Amino acid sequence: MLSPSPLATIHPPTIRPLAPADAEAYRAARLQMLQEAPAAFLTAAEEFAARPLPALAERLRPDPENVTFGAWEGTELVGLCTLVREQGPRSRHRADIFGMGVLTRAQGQGLGRALLAAAIAYARELPGLQSLHLDVMETQTAALKLYRSLGFEVWGTEPNAICLDGQLLRSHAMWLDLTASGTVESSGTAEPTSQQPAGQS
């Protein structure tokens, strides 16, 4: 008898909001992303590693206006995307995308697109929310291309946004108008092969 093909045992990726019980998986995935793409994020790997697990679990506490979406391959968390609605009375019409990324080994499957599409679809359901905002480092050209393909537009560029190993990098500020008509496809074109960071967090 032929043994089952290895492909038959692979679980398709799952996108879902994270909860406090996912804190250890979140910590491992986030730390690996920061190590793999240090130029993509404002937070340094060593800085994140020092954060206590209970604090990370609290960050994942259910809150409809502060949600971290995770991409899972079986039991392994391989992608992240956080949406945070601003709380000021004059800024509640907007939300920010932070800390988006996909582990290097899991890229090329459309996970970055699926994560951001899930966040956009969720944002459209929040009453009164009119726009999404994110930042992307100038070095992350594949990420910039992905964001543009989902409707984000660059509205400005910040010079000297971060300094990494003595090199000053610029950051592009992008936004998406949620009041515009149109739908977001979560599949189709495969995601770029580099990290998809957002928010520089």
**pLDDT averaged over residues:** 87
Q: List unreliable stretches of 5+ residues.
A: 1-10, 186-197
The largest sheet, given as strand count, sense and whether it forms a barrel, is: 7 strands, mixed
Give the total of beta strands: 7
Strand/helix succession: EHHHEEEHEHEE
Beta-strand content: 25-35%
Q: What class would the helix/strand composition place it in? A: alpha+beta
Cross-sheet strand order for the largest sheet? 1-2-3-4-5-7-6
Q: State the share of residues found in helices, binned by percent.
A: 10-25%
The number of helices is 5
Keywords:
201 residues; 5 helices; alpha+beta; globular; 7 strands; disordered N terminus
What does this structure look like?
- With 201 residues, this protein is of the alpha+beta class.
- The protein has helices at 23-36, 45-49, 53-59, 111-124, 141-149, and strands at residues 14-17, 66-73, 76-85, 94-102, 131-137, 153-164, 167-177.
- It has a 7-stranded mixed sheet with strand order 1-2-3-4-5-7-6, sandwiched between helices.
- A hairpin with a 2-residue loop joins β2 and β3.
- α1 (23-36) packs across α3.
- The longest helix has 14 residues, at 23-36.
- It is globular.
- Mean pLDDT is 87; it is low at 1-10 and 186-197.
